[in-house]
């Protein structure tokens, strides 16, 4: 019997198995459909349907094992939108690979994920998942690879996580995880790759236990967090490490000599921390090192000739440190070097002709050092160069641009900013057809710019400002044709003449146009207003433009900065400017603009600086029922017009100081940054500029008009005001004692009015007051003596015949107090230093403002967009970048 039945067992078994299998398949298919129905409809999942259940293993993104059960779900970049809550976590007993990367999944990761017990590979990266990462993820004990990067996940209580003994790759980068280093990681000892880049992790990493067990680690990447403390000593136990990135944290102290223990290291990124001291000698024993990034630290000392031992080196980035001394000769033996940046250090001496040996170089930046010239012509043999920075070296060149530069035909970035160059711009520059960025700022170039630039059809940034270039921009149509890429033109501070041709309006790619401080003339093409749909920044200040301001600013106007100060514009301010809702700085000062105060200005809610001084504006500044006018204004200068009626101070009562840096990003991700608009101040014929910290100044200047009536009490609400000038009007009545509330006031000028009454003694509470001018009024009584008032001299009070007391010679009738030692203005301080006192001495009407342009940009002159571009370039040049 037994042997009769026996043969049937396998058959039966197979039958049952396949029955089970088809039940499982149905269950898996139904689970997928249930989840699909919870998602936004997507054509990518068309094959997922009940009618197609038999074909489960051929559904989009589904892979089955040999038994026909789902083993892999790969929905990489399928534009899926929905949550993970309806996923059938208990329905896939054989699933070992789940990839949902690059979709639009949102919401939390459900704790039920722990039921995908066979998972080896889990990739949820590049979605919109949020909430704390559930500790159940760590119950997936078969996981080899876990990628949760690029989401909005938050830090859980990591102490609920179990170590993951088989995990090899853990990627939590680009989330807002803020916590200390997660402790479960320290015990996941199979890890070979760990990335916590761009989170908000904090704390130091000096504790014994953090890296001690991670002896398989090859890649450790902690870029862009807030880790602090000294170089984590346990890292030296990671003897298999190939790639170490600690960039963009707050690490400090020196690099220990033990670094040589990392003898497999190929990538060492330590940029933008606070590391200091000389480089440890053993760093040059890392013979496999390919990329060394030390930029943005405080490293010092000279670079040892042992650098030549790093024969595999492709990148050496020492930018922005305090290195000094001459370049070590063996540097030029690093024949694989592609990127060499020494920008912003204290290196000195001659550049050896051996630089020509670095034939693989693609990026070379020697800028902002103390190198001496002449530049060896061997540099022009570096034919692979794409990026050359020689800026801000006083002595590198002998006068003019070496024509050999024209040989570097692969150049995309050329930075010769502030290099003491003169002469004509050689036509050889026209050979550099790939040039994207040309920065010739702040040299002494002469002659025209014409022709040369017309060959540079890939140019995006052109900055030739602050030279002595000349020529007629109208006839030299160098720029306006065939420049589909040009975004940034700065010709400011030269001697260009002629009219702005209408063809400028064809350069629709423009974001920044700066023609200030030239000798340009004629009327502006009206189409300039249309161009403002793309333009962010127009500076035409200090030219001889005439005619009316263009009237065609459209509703899509993007302008944030418009400066036409000191030209000969006339007519009205065009009401279409009200379309430029993003305007932050509007300077029309020193023109011949007429009409009444443009009431549409109230609509510009972003306005921070409004300068209309020295024009022909007249009439009262009318009350208009606007709830919260000018919420962001911090500088207003209406001086030297014909305004009349009551002081319009109530419109400016929102004034505050701000800390905003004037910067913005365009839709191509390119940054422009300007520091605060610089304010040139004319002091006794000499121009000073307050370039820094303008943002701390809030200024109201209504001087030299025909304002009438009393100083309104609302003035006392301007508690942020640093400067108030109401001089040369026809104001009457007393000085309100409420002015004492203006605690930040540094300068108060009420001179040449018809003010009466006594000087309120409460004003002695203004502790920052450095300048006071009350002269030319009808004030009477005793001059207060306390506080800052003891520092003012009699100029402050002249022409008020009824005032008495120190510092005036006229004694008060019934004062008993002994003659006071007048607080002299400290003669020692009257040197070069720019004080408010110095600024305000000896001006008449319309003292201040007139905003000159200012792309002064990042610290020490390197523009952000440039730095950004270099980074982009480096990205292109290197496979990995962190
Ligand atoms: C899987 O689907 C493709 C088309 O989407 C089809 O060509 C192929 O024959 C199908 N395979 C099976 C086994 O059904
Ligand atoms: C899982 O799938 C991804 C994407 O198809 C693949 O790159 C990876 O090698 C797979 N991993 C495993 C462990 O099967
Ligand atoms: C995992 O599945 C089991 C069995 O279906 C269930 O009881 C448990 O709640 C699930 N886990 C979670 C965290 O939901
Ligand atoms: C997620 O990270 C893993 C491991 O680093 C990697 O293999 C995978 O390609 C990443 N996913 C994406 C979408 O880049
Ligand atoms: C982490 O995942 C991202 C994709 O989001 C990938 O680009 C990156 O290379 C991964 N990092 C590591 C160290 O694997
Ligand atoms: C995290 O969990 C541990 C263990 O349950 C607990 O002792 C600790 O207080 C928790 N920490 C926080 C910040 O909640
Ligand atoms: C370094 O990072 C800080 C922020 O931590 C930033 O302000 C600074 O500009 C960076 N330095 C450089 C040189 O990029
Ligand atoms: C670098 O040069 C600057 C300017 O000459 C100087 O102030 C600074 O002290 C120097 N730094 C070092 C570390 O030599
Ligand atoms: C501009 O390009 C043309 C054609 O490529 C070339 O003949 C001419 O010499 C170039 N001009 C300059 C100034 O380099
Ligand atoms: C400027 O654009 C206008 C209209 O798009 C076109 O007619 C004109 O030829 C262009 N001018 C130049 C110089 O390209």
From TrEMBL:
InterPro entries associated with the record: Leu-rich_rpt (IPR001611), Leu-rich_rpt_typical-subtyp (IPR003591), LRR-RLK (IPR052592), LRR_dom_sf (IPR032675), LRR_N_plant-typ (IPR013210)
Keyword Signal appears in the UniProt entry: yes
Signal peptide span: 1-25
Chief place of localization: membrane
Domain of life assignment: Eukaryota
Gene Ontology cellular component terms for the protein in this record: plasma membrane
GO biological process assignments: anatomical structure morphogenesis; defense response; plant organ development; response to other organism
Stored Pfam families: LRR_1, LRR_8, LRRNT_2
The entry's keywords: Cell membrane, Glycoprotein, Leucine-rich repeat, Membrane, Repeat, Signal, Transmembrane, Transmembrane helix
Topological relation to the membrane, as annotated: Single-pass membrane protein
Statement: the UniProt record of this protein carries the keyword Repeat: yes
Ranges for domain Leucine-rich repeat-containing N-terminal plant-type: 27-65
Localization per record: Cell membrane
SMART domains: LRR_TYP (SM00369)
Similarity-based family: Belongs to the RLP family.
The protein's name in its UniProt record: Leucine-rich repeat-containing N-terminal plant-type domain-containing protein
Species in which this protein is naturally found: Daucus carota subsp. sativus (Carrot)
């Amino acid at each position: 019997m037994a042997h009769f039945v026996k043969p049937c067992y396998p058959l039966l078994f197979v039958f049952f198995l396949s029955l089970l299998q088809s039940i499982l398949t149905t269950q898996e298919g139904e689970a997928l459909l249930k989840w699909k129905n919870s998602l936004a409809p997507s054509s990518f999942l068309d094959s997922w349907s009940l009618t197609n259940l038999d074909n489960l293993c051929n559904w989009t993104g589904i892979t089955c094992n040999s038994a026909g059960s789902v083993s892999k779900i790969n929905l990489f970049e399928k534009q899926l939108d929905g949550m993970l809550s309806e996923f059938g976590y208990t329905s896939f007993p054989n699933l070992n690979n789940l990839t949902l990367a690059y979709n639009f999944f949102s919401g939390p990761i459900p704790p039920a994920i722990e039921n995908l017990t066979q998972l080896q590979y889990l990739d949820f990266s590049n979605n919109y998942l949020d909430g704390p990462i559930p500790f159940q993820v760590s119950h997936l004990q078969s996981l080899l690879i876990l990628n949760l990067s690029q989401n909005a996940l938050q830090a859980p209580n990591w102490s609920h996580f179990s170590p993951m003994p088989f995990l090899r790759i853990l990627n939590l980068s680009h989330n807002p995880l803020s916590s200390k280093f997660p402790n479960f990681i320290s015990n996941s000892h199979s890890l070979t790759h760990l990335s916590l880049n761009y989170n908000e992790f904090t704390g130091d990493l000096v504790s014994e236990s953090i890296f001690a067990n991670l002896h398989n680690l090859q890649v450790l990447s902690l870029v862009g967090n807030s880790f602090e403390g000294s170089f984590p000593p346990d890292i030296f136990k990671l003897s298999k490490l190939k790639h170490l990135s600690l960039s963009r944290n707050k690490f400090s102290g020196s690099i220990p000599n033990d670094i040589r223990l990392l003898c497999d290291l190929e990538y060492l990124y330590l940029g933008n921390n606070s590391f200091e001291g000389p480089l440890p000698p053993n760093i040059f024993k890392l013979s496999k090192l390919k990329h060394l990034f030390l930029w943005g630290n405080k490293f010092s000392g000279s670079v040892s000739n042992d650098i030549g031992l790093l024969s595999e080196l492709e990148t050496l980035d020492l930018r922005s440190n305090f290195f000094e001394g001459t370049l070590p000769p063996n540097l030029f033996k690093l024949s694989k070097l592609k990127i060499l940046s020494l920008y912003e250090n204290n290196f000195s001496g001659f550049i050896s002709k051996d630089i020509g040996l670095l034939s693989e170089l693609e990026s070379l930046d020697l800028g902002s050092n103390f190198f001496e010239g002449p530049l060896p012509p061997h540099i022009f043999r570096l034919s692979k160069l794409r990026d050359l920075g020689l800026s801000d070296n006083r002595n590198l060149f002998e006068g003019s641009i070496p024509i050999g530069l024209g040989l570097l035909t692969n150049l995309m970035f050329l930075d010769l900013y502030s290099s003491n160059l003169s002469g004509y711009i050689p036509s050889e520059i026209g050979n550099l057809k790939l040039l994207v960025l040309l920065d010739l700022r702040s040299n002494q170039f002469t002659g025209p710019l014409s022709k040369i630039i017309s060959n540079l059809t890939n140019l995006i940034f052109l900055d030739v400002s602050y030279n002595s270039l000349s020529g007629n921009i109208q006839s030299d149509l160098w720029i306006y044709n065939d420049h589909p890429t040009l975004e940034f033109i700065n010709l400011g501070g030269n001697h260009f003449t002629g009219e702005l041709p209408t063809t400028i309006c064809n350069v629709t790619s423009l974001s920044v146009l700066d023609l200030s401080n030239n000798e340009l003339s004629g009327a502006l093409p009206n189409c300039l207003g249309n161009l403002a749909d793309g333009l962010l920044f127009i500076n035409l200040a200090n030219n001889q433009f005439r005619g009316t301001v263009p009237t065609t600013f459209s509703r899509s106007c993007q302008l944030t900065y418009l400066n036409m100060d000191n030209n000969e514009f006339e007519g009205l301010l065009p009401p279409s400017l009200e379309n430029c809702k993003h305007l932050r700085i509007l300077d029309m000062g020193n023109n011949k603009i007429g009409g009444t105060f443009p009431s549409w200005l109230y609509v510009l809610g972003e306005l921070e600086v409004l300068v209309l001084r020295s024009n022909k504006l007249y009439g009262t500044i009318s009350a208009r029922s606007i709830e919260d006018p000018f919420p962001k204004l911090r500088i207003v200068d209406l001086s030297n017009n014909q305004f009349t009626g009551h002081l319009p101070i109530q419109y400016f009562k929102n004034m505050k100081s701000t800390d905003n840096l004037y910067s913005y990003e365009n839709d191509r991700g390119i940054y422009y940054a300007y520091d605060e608009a610089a304010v040139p101040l004319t002091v006794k014929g000499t121009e000073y500029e307050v370039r820094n910290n303008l943002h701390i100044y809030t200024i109201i200047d209504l001087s030299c008009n025909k304002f009438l009536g009393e100083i309104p009490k609302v003035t006392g609400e301007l508690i942020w005001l640093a400067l108030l000038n109401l001089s040369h009007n026809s104001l009457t009545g007393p000085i309100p004692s409420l002015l004492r509330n203006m605690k930040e006031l540094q300068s108060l000028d009420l001179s040449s009015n018809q003010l009466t009454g006594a000087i309120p003694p409460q004003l002695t509470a203004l502790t920052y007051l450095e300048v006071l001018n009350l002269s030319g009024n009808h004030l009477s009584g005793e001059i207060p003596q306390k506080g800052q008032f003891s520092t003012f001299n009699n100029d402050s009070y002249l022409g008020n015949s009824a005032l008495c007391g120190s510092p005036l010679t006229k004694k008060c009738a019934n004062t008993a107090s002994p003659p006071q030692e007048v607080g002299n203005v400290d003669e020692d301080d009257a040197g070069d230093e720019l004080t408010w006192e110095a600024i305000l001495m000896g001006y008449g009407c319309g003292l201040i403002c007139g905003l000159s342009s200012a792309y002064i940009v990042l610290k020490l002159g390197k523009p952000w967009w440039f730095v950004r571009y270099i980074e982009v370039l480096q990205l292109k040049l290197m496979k990995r970048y962190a």
